[in-house]
Design brief:
The complex is a heterotrimer of chains A (329), B (321) and C (326). Chain A has 14 helices and six strands. In chain A, the strands form three sheets. Chain A has a two-stranded antiparallel ribbon. Helices cover 71% and strands 5% of the residues of chain A. Chain B has one domain: ABC transporter involved in vitamin B12 uptake, BtuC (Orthogonal Bundle). The radius of gyration of chain B is 20 Å and the shape is globular. The model of chain B has no long low-confidence stretch (mean pLDDT 91). Classes of the chains: A mainly alpha (329), B mainly alpha (321), C alpha/beta (326). The interface between B and C is large, with 65 and 64 residues.
C-alpha cells in the first residue's frame, strides 16, 4: 500500500505544478461560482470534461494494462455505444433502456476483444486494432455515417445535469472509480489481475483462471468506453459515429502510465490513473486559456509529458534521496 | 536441429503462404488483379511504410516501442521542403541532414529511455508531440518541393518492361529490408538486440552493452523514420506537416503481423516485409472492389486482417502437430 | 448492392481462410472491371469524417447510379498516400475516368503524370492542386475556402458595426479548409481595428470539441465575447450549446457565424441561435459527372468551374430551409 501511495505522488506533483502555473498565468482559473443551482468554473470543467472521456477510458485501460495488455479499440467502442443509445431514444425507448443497450453492446465488443486474446491467443494490440477498425465501421453502418441528433431530456441530463451542484458525469465516474477500487481491494480480483500481468504461467499454475481474468478486464474496458460514448453523445445531444473518440486511446494510455501503472503489467493504481487523466485535462484547458496556437500546442504537451516521465525516473528519484523501486522500461 | 529450425521459422512460412493465398484468391475474384503493375504498386505505394516498419521491428525486438515515427517522417518532409525550397540547400545535403536529424532524435529518445529508466511509450509519445509540433512550426501547410534533383531522381529507376519502372523509393526500401536482415541476423548488434528484448537482466549479466544497444535501436528507428520521410518526398515532391498520422500503428501492425512479438526478443525483419505487403494487399483488394461504402470498408478491412491472422495461426499450429 | 459486395469481400476472406482452391469471388456478379460496356469511374475520397463529406460522397454515388455508371469508391481515411495508391489501383483496373478530392494541394505531380500516361481524364473536386503542367487534370470543381472565410468576416463586420470580441473555432489543424477559412476571415476583419480575435483554438471540426473549447474560453474571456466564428456548422452548434449552458444568449448577445450551410444550421438560424452560415455545397456529383462526360468526349473544359457559394442569415435562411438536401 505504501508503494501505491508513493507512485501517486509524482503525477500529483506534476498536476500541482501545472495548477500553480495557472494560478499565476491565468487569472480566474480557480474562480468557481454558483450559477443556476450548479458549480461553474474552469476547475469544474477540468473534472467534467476529464471525467467524460480520459478518466473513464483510463479506468478500464488501467486493468487491461495491469494484465500486460492494451486496448486500442476504446474510441470506436465509444462511437458504437453513443450511436446505439441515440438511436434507441429516437425510436422511443426510455433513457435507461437506451443507455443499457449502448453499454450492453459496448461490453459485448469488449468481451470479443477478450475472447480473441484469451482464447484465440492473439496479441492484444492486434486484436484491439481489428476492433478499432471494424468497430468504427459498425458505428457508421448503424447510423448510415450520419450524425444522430436526439431531443431526449433525460439522456441529455446525463452529461449536462447536476447532482448537488456537481456535474452528473463527475459523480458517475468518480463513483465508478471508487466502487471499482473497493471491489478490487475487497475481493481477490485485484490480486488476480496483477498476478496475470506479472507472470501468466506462474499464475495459471497457481490456479488462477488467467483467461477469465483477461476476458473480464477487456469486458470492463468495453463497458467504460461504452459509458464514455453515451456521455459524449448526451453532452452534445447527438451521436457522432465517424469521429467521436478518435485517437483518445492514446490519452487513456497516457493517463494510466503517468499514474504509475507500468505498461509491462503487474501492479496498478486506479487513483494514479484518475490523477493522470486530470493532469491531461488540466493541460488541455491550460493551452486553451493561454491561447497557444493549435499548430504549436503539441510542443508544450510534449514538455509536460517529458516532465512527468522524469518525475517517474527511478534514477532522478534516487538523486533526490527518495526510495527507489524498479520500473520496467 | 533441423526440426527446431523449421519450427522456429514456421510462423514466417505461414505468413508467406497466406500472403500468396490471399493474392491468388483476389486474382481470381477481380479482373486485372494478377498483374506486374499491381505487384509493383504494392512496393511503390508503401515504400515509406516499409522502411519505417523495419526500424520499428528493431525497436520492438529490443522490447520497446516508438510512437514518434509518423511525426518524425512528417517533420522530415517539411524540413526538406523548407531547406531545399526556401533556403536553397542542395537536395542530397538536405537529405543527409534530415536522416542525421532523425538519427539524433532517436538517439536522444533512446538515451532518455535508458538513462532515466522511463517507459518507452511515454518518451516516444512526447517525441511524437514534439516532432509534430516542430513540423507545424516549420510549415503550417503543405509545401511543394521544386528541385531539378528531385525531378531527375523521379524519372530514374530499373525498367521492368511494359513501361513499368522500379523507382528509387522502392529500391531504397528493398535495400533497407536486406540491410535490416543482415544487421538483425548477422551482426553482434543484432544479437544484442534479440538478447536485450529476450531478457534485459540476463543480457546485462552476460556483459552485453545494454545501454549502447538501446540507444542504437532508437537511433536506427529514428533514422528509418527520417528515411521514410525522404522517400515520401521523392514520391510526392512535397512536404506536409499532417503526413504520417497513424503511421506508427501501421508500422507496429506490419511488424506484429509478420510474427514479431510485442514483448520483444522474437521476430524477423523479413516477417515485417511480408506484413507490409499483406497490409498493402488488403487495401488493394478493397480499392479493386470499390463498391463498399466507408462503413463496410472498415468492417471488411478489420475482418480481412482478422481472417488473415487466424489463418496464419491455424497453419502454424497444424504444422506443429 | 452494398451488401452483396460486402459478401464478395467476405467470401474472399472465407476463401482465404479455408484455403479453398476455387475462391467464390465471382459469385457476387456485376463488378470486376469494365464488364458489359458499362462506364467505370474511380472516385478517391479523402475520408468519411464529417457530415459534409458524407453528403459529398452520397452525391457522387447517387449521380453515378442515376447515369448507370459503375463507381469504384475509395476512402483514404485521411491519408494522401492512400489516395495515391487508390489511384494506382484505378489505373491498374483500367477505369475510364477518375474523380479526385485531394487532401492537400501539393504532391500530385508524379501520380497525375501516371494517370495522364494511361490516358485517363481526372476531374478534381473540393480544392485545386499545384502541378507543373495544367493539362494533368481536366477541370476543377471547387468551392473557394478563402472566399467563404472572407464572406463570413465581411458579414460579421457589418453586423457588429465593426466592433466585436471574437472567438474563432478552427478546423482540424493543418487541413486546407481550416487554413483558408482562417486566412479569408482574418483578412476581412483586418481593416477594422475594433474587431478583435480574443482566442483562436481548434475544435477539430467536431461538435464535441467545439463545445469543450467554447466552455473553457467562456470562463477565460467572459463578457468580452460578443461573437463566435466557427470553421464549420458542427463546431458552431457545439459553441451554441456551451453558450446556453453558461447563461448567454447565442444569436442575440453573442453573434454566431459559421460555414458549410448544412440543414441543421438552417434550423438553428430559424430558431434564432445561429446568425449566419456561408454555404459550401457538397452536392458536386452532377457537375462532376457532367465534366467527366465532356472530358471523355474530348471536349475542352474550363480549368475551373467555381461553385457559387451563398450566404444565409435570418433574412433568407427560413425560405431556403425546405430546399436543403443535406
Amino acid at each position: 500500500m505504501k508503494v501505491l501511495r508513493s507512485t501517486l505522488v509524482w503525477p500529483l506533483v506534476a498536476l500541482v505544478v501545472l495548477l500553480v502555473f495557472n494560478a499565476v498565468a491565468s487569472p480566474g482559473f480557480f474562480h468557481v461560482e454558483w450559477k443556476d443551482g450548479r458549480l461553474f468554473g474552469t476547475v469544474v470543467d477540468v473534472f467534467n470534461q476529464g471525467a467524460r472521456v480520459p478518466m473513464l477510458l483510463a479506468l478500464g485501460m488501467t486493468l487491461v494494462i495491469a494484465t500486460g495488455g492494451v486496448d486500442l479499440s476504446v474510441g470506436s467502442i465509444m462511437a458504437v455505444s453513443g450511436a446505439v443509445a441515440a438511436m434507441q431514444v429516437n425510436a422511443g425507448a426510455p433513457m435507461v433502456q437506451a443507455v443499457g443497450a449502448g453499454l450492453g453492446l459496448a461490453t459485448l465488443l469488449g468481451l470479443v476483444n477478450g475472447l480473441l486474446i484469451a482464447r484465440v491467443g492473439l496479441q492484444p494490440i492486434i486484436a484491439t486494432l481489428v476492433m478499432m477498425v471494424a468497430g468504427r465501421g459498425l458505428a457508421m453502418l448503424l447510423t448510415g455515417s450520419q450524425m444522430v441528433p436526439f431531443a431526449n431530456r433525460s439522456l441529455t441530463w446525463l452529461a449536462n445535469g447536476s447532482v448537488g451542484g456537481l456535474p452528473v458525469p463527475v459523480v458517475l465516474v468518480l463513483g465508478l472509480a471508487v466502487v471499482t477500487g473497493w471491489v478490487l481491494r475487497r475481493t481477490a480480483a485485484g490480486l488476480f489481475i496483477e498476478a496475470t500481468g506479472d507472470n501468466e504461467k506462474a499464475s495459471r499454475l497457481a490456479g488462477i483462471q488467467t483467461g477469465g481474468v483477461r476476458l473480464a478486464v477487456y469486458g470492463f474496458s468495453g463497458f467504460c468506453a461504452g459509458l464514455s460514448g453515451v456521455l459524449e453523445a448526451a453532452n452534445i445531444s447527438a451521436a457522432d459515429p465517424a469521429r467521436i473518440g478518435d485517437t483518445r486511446e492514446l490519452d487513456a494510455i497516457f493517463a494510466v502510465v503517468a499514474g504509475g501503472t507500468a505498461l509491462t503489467g503487474g501492479r496498478f493504481s486506479l487513483a494514479g490513473s484518475v490523477v493522470g487523466a486530470l493532469l491531461l485535462q488540466t493541460l488541455t484547458l491550460t493551452l486553451y486559456n493561454q491561447n497557444v496556437a493549435p499548430a504549436v500546442a503539441p510542443v508544450p504537451k510534449a514538455v509536460v509529458i517529458l516532465a512527468v516521465c522524469l518525475l517517474h525516473s527511478p534514477r532522478l528519484r534516487a538523486r533526490f534521496g527518495k526510495r527507489t523501486q524498479p520500473v520496467a522500461a | 536441429m533441423n526440426r527446431i529450425f523449421a519450427s522456429r521459422l514456421l510462423p514466417l512460412m505461414a505468413t508467406g503462404l497466406v500472403l500468396v493465398a490471399l493474392f491468388a484468391a483476389a486474382g481470381a475474384g477481380y479482373e486485372n488483379f494478377l498483374s506486374a503493375r499491381v505487384v509493383l504498386n504494392l512496393f511503390k505505394d508503401r515504400a515509406f511504410l516499409g522502411v519505417v516498419a523495419v526500424g520499428m521491428t528493431f525497436v520492438i525486438l529490443s522490447g520497446g516501442i516508438d510512437l514518434s515515427v509518423g511525426a518524425v517522417m512528417a517533420f522530415t518532409t517539411v524540413f526538406l521542403a523548407k531547406v531545399i525550397g526556401t533556403m536553397g540547400w542542395s537536395a542530397p545535403v538536405a537529405m543527409l541532414a534530415a536522416v542525421g536529424i532523425g538519427v539524433g532524435f532517436g538517439m536522444f529518445q533512446g538515451w532518455v529511455i535508458h538513462f532515466f529508466r522511463i517507459p518507452a511509450f511515454l518518451v516516444t509519445l512526447a517525441g511524437m508531440f514534439l516532432a509534430r509540433g516542430m513540423a507545424f512550426v516549420v510549415s503550417p501547410r503543405s509545401v511543394e518541393i521544386r528541385s531539378a534533383f528531385y525531378d531527375d531522381l523521379g524519372e530514374r529507376g530499373v525498367p521492368l518492361g511494359e513501361g513499368l519502372l522500379l523507382t528509387v523509393g522502392p529500391l531504397v526500401y528493398l535495400v533497407v529490408v536486406a540491410a535490416g536482415m543482415v544487421v538483425a541476423h548477422g551482426t553482434r548488434f543484432g544479437r544484442n538486440v534479440y538478447a536485450l528484448g529476450g531478457n534485459e537482466a540476463s543480457a546485462a549479466l552476460m556483459g552485453l552493452p545494454v545501454g549502447a544497444t538501446r540507444v542504437g535501436v532508437y537511433a536506427l528507428c529514428g533514422g528509418c523514420a527520417a528515411l521514410g520521410g525522404v522517400i515520401s518526398t521523392l514520391a510526392l515532391s512535397s512536404g506536409d506537416p499532417t503526413r504520417g498520422t497513424g503511421l506508427e500503428l501501421d508500422a507496429i501492425a506490419a511488424a506484429v503481423i509478420g510474427g514479431t512479438v510485442l514483448t520483444g526478443g522474437r521476430g524477423w525483419v523479413f516477417g515485417t516485409f511480408l506484413g507490409v505487403l499483406i497490409l498493402g494487399t488488403i487495401k488493394t483488394i478493397l480499392d479493386f472492389d470499390g463498391s463498399l461504402d466507408p462503413a463496410w470498408l472498415r468492417i471488411a478491412s478489420g475482418g480481412l486482417l482478422l481472417g488473415f491472422i487466424l489463418l496464419q495461426k491455424l497453419i502454424a499450429r497444424q504444422s506443429v502437430s | 448492392m452494398k451488401r452483396q459486395s460486402f459478401l464478395r469481400v467476405a467470401g474472399l476472406a472465407a476463401a482465404v481462410s479455408f484455403s479453398a482452391c476455387k475462391p467464390s469471388g465471382s459469385g457476387g456478379g456485376g463488378g470486376g472491371g469494365a464488364t458489359g460496356g458499362k462506364l467505370v469511374v474511380g472516385f478517391s475520397q479523402i475520408g468519411a469524417d464529417n457530415p459534409w463529406r458524407t453528403a459529398e460522397t452520397e452525391s457522387v454515388k447517387a449521380e453515378a447510379a442515376k447515369r448507370g455508371i459503375e463507381l469504384k469508391f475509395s476512402d483514404a481515411q485521411g491519408q494522401q498516400e492512400a489516395q495515391i495508391s487508390a489511384i494506382r489501383s484505378f489505373i491498374a483496373q483500367g477505369v475510364s475516368a477518375i474523380i479526385l478530392a485531394p487532401k492537400v494541394e501539393t504532391g500530385w505531380d508524379a501520380i497525375l503524370k501516371e494517370v495522364k500516361a494511361a490516358k485517363i481524364p481526372v476531374v478534381l473536386v473540393d480544392r485545386g492542386v499545384t502541378v507543373s503542367d495544367p493539362t494533368l487534370f481536366a477541370t476543377l470543381i471547387a468551392s473557394d475556402f478563402v472566399a467563404e472565410g472572407r464572406m463570413a468576416g465581411e458579414w460579421l463586420v457589418k453586423k457588429s458595426g465593426g466592433k466585436a470580441g471574437i472567438i474563432q473555432l478552427e478546423g482540424t489543424t493543418g487541413a486546407a479548409p481550416a487554413n483558408d477559412r482562417k486566412k479569408g476571415f482574418e483578412a476581412a476583419i483586418a481593416g477594422s481595428p475594433d474587431m478583435k480575435v480574443l482566442a483562436s483554438q481548434t475544435g477539430d471540426f467536431k461538435r464535441s470539441d467545439g463545445k469543450n473549447v467554447m466552455e473553457a474560453l467562456i470562463k477565460a474571456h467572459g463578457a468580452a465575447i460578443t461573437a463566435v466564428y466557427a470553421h464549420n456548422d458542427d463546431m458552431a452548434i457545439g459553441a451554441i450549446q456551451a453558450l446556453e449552458a453558461a447563461g448567454r444568449q447565442p444569436g442575440k448577445d453573442v453573434t454566431v457565424v459559421s460555414i458549410d450551410g448544412m440543414g441543421f444550421a438552417f434550423e438553428a438560424i430559424k430558431e434564432g441561435k445561429l446568425n449566419c452560415t456561408v454555404e459550401c455545397n457538397p452536392l458536386l456529383g452532377p457537375m462532376a459527372f457532367d465534366a467527366v462526360a465532356k472530358a471523355l468526349k474530348g471536349e475542352e473544359l474550363p480549368k475551373q468551374l467555381v461553385q457559387e457559394d451563398r450566404l444565409f442569415d435570418e433574412t433568407n435562411a427560413p425560405a431556403e430551409l425546405p430546399n436543403r438536401k443535406y
